[in-house]
Amino acid sequence: MDQIAALHWVQQNIALFGGDAGNVTMLGHGSGAACINFLMISPTVMPGLFHRAILLSGSALSSWALVEDPVSFAVQMAKQSNCTLPEDIVKDHELIVDCLREVSLEELMSADISTPSYLTAFGPSVDGVVVKTDYAKELLTFFIPNDLQGFTSVSGVNNFKADKRSGDRTFGIRGGQN
User: Fold this and answer.
1) How many domains are contained in the chain?
2) Is the dihedral of CA 33, 142, 1, 126 positive or negative?
């Protein structure tokens, strides 16, 4: 939602910086690319907020693109910030949100949230609004013939390097989904 709000701000203010509201290109690398990819297929993004997208080293299909269990990380943050946890965390999540709003930035930044390797505690998650539960199916039908999809000659060189490091690979298709 914050990224969508930023796109609305760009539409309202880009002319003040010499830009064209009818010609907005977004570029993202890694998790930024995944976020842009989610925005490309999100039903909550109004047509015309952006017109082109460049995705580098990531997509919504990357294994690390989504936070799988955002509630558990929010609970970790709340515990470390001495927030009182309600009995029904999902139903009464606003109590946690209200408490965390009162915590200083320094305290939030110093919290030690444990995450699996190469994953983040906070980021896009399936909410049914911005990121739909069937987003992978939407991605498969999204691209149209005018899309430019390709790679550089460096990609071929990187493939050879990847063969030597079998434990450090990222694949674009998530396991268990058809």
Assistant:
1) 2
2) negative
Domain limits at 103? 70-110
Task: With beta carbons less than 8 A apart as the criterion, state whether 59 and 172 touch.
Answer: yes
**Distances 94 to 86, 99, 158 between C-alpha atoms, Å:** 10, 8, 46
DSSP letter, residue 86: P
d(CA 52, CA 10): 14
pLDDT tens-digit profile of 60-77? 888 888 888 888 888 888
Per residue in 78-136, pLDDT tens? 998 999 898 888 788 889 889 999 999 998 888 888 877 777 777 787 777 778 788 77
- Axis-axis angle for helices 70-80, 93-101 (nearest 10): 50
| Token output for 12 | 């309202």
Q: Do 95 and 20 reside in the same domain of the chain?
A: no
List the one residue out of 33, 77, 45 whose CA is nearest residue 172: 33
State the sign of the Cα–Cα–Cα–Cα dihedral 80, 85, 91, 97. negative
